[in-house]
Amino acid sequence: MALLTIGVASSALFDLAESDRVFREQGVAAYRAYQEERLDQPLQPGPAQPFIRRLLSLNDVLMDAVDVIVLSRNSAESGLRVMRSIDSAGLPITRAAFREGRAAFEFMPALGMSLFLSANHDDVSEALAAGHPAGTVLRGSSMPEVGRELRVAFDFDGVLADDSSERMFRQEGLGRYAQREAELADVPLSPGPLAPFLAGLNRIQEEETTLKSRDSGYEPRLRISLVTARSAPAHERAVNSLHSWGLKVDDAFFLGGLPKAPILEVLNPHLFFDDQRQHLDRALRTPSVHVPFGVANEADAGPAPVSGTPRRARRAAPEEVLDITA
Length: 326
What we know:
The chain has 326 residues and is α/β, with parallel strands linked by helices. It has helices at residues 10-13, 17-26, 28-37, 49-56, 79-88, 108-111, 121-129, 164-183, 195-214, 235-245, 261-267, 277-282; strands at 4-8, 66-72, 95-98, 115-118, 134-139, 150-154, 222-228, 251-254, 271-274, 288-290. The chain is globular and about 65 Å long.
């Protein structure tokens, strides 16, 4: 079994805009015919493909490090083009679940998955509501793949941790929030939706550490960063929470309300996960995933926090992505 298994929707792996148009304008029968007529025409890369390719490259040095499984609302017949496109792209993906018109994320536990990536906001929201780690891929890298390092960056509250601190801030204000976080510095928060994904990445890092102990010339490929609006003294609870969960990051940026975009441009992660669309929309050069979890994404989330405190955005509009092609 792989150290890390993730699911990816075909809507994140490939550009399905034209397929979506055919379905919406002409219906299911025309959509199926369209795909069958183009079985040997590879689909263009989607927003998650650069990250998936880089992630799978870890298998070059660590046996069974990563397994990627396609989770799709396509029928098995329509999915043939997806699988042929995967082969054409040279991606070592051999497993898939095609559930015509139905979401497949409910099979995540059975498949041992730690993350589901999709371009379909509604599917991601439903997966999170069901307790499955998931994120909506907004955009991928437009830069050529240079080097072999894989860089992943995370926000903290509402992503790696739950949203209880944010709820406290919204309910009782900045003063009480700061006081409570200081008082509870040694009390770990509950893990958030993407903690299982970080755990899988950490398992890979542990294997890389073992590999380096055997070969001093080996340079670890995976690097993980935390980029959060928390600042002192609230940073202590974040650090202590990660430690209590048995998880770790290589870099930690506690920005206290400073914009994240400049930091992300220097870090240049292959994906950055945040529960706030406003942060992602400001970091337009960064490949990004929205995690629509917690109070930040509820319709009545309330006013934006004061500078220097954890910030949260209003709920984003669902992505315009076709269900059947997801």
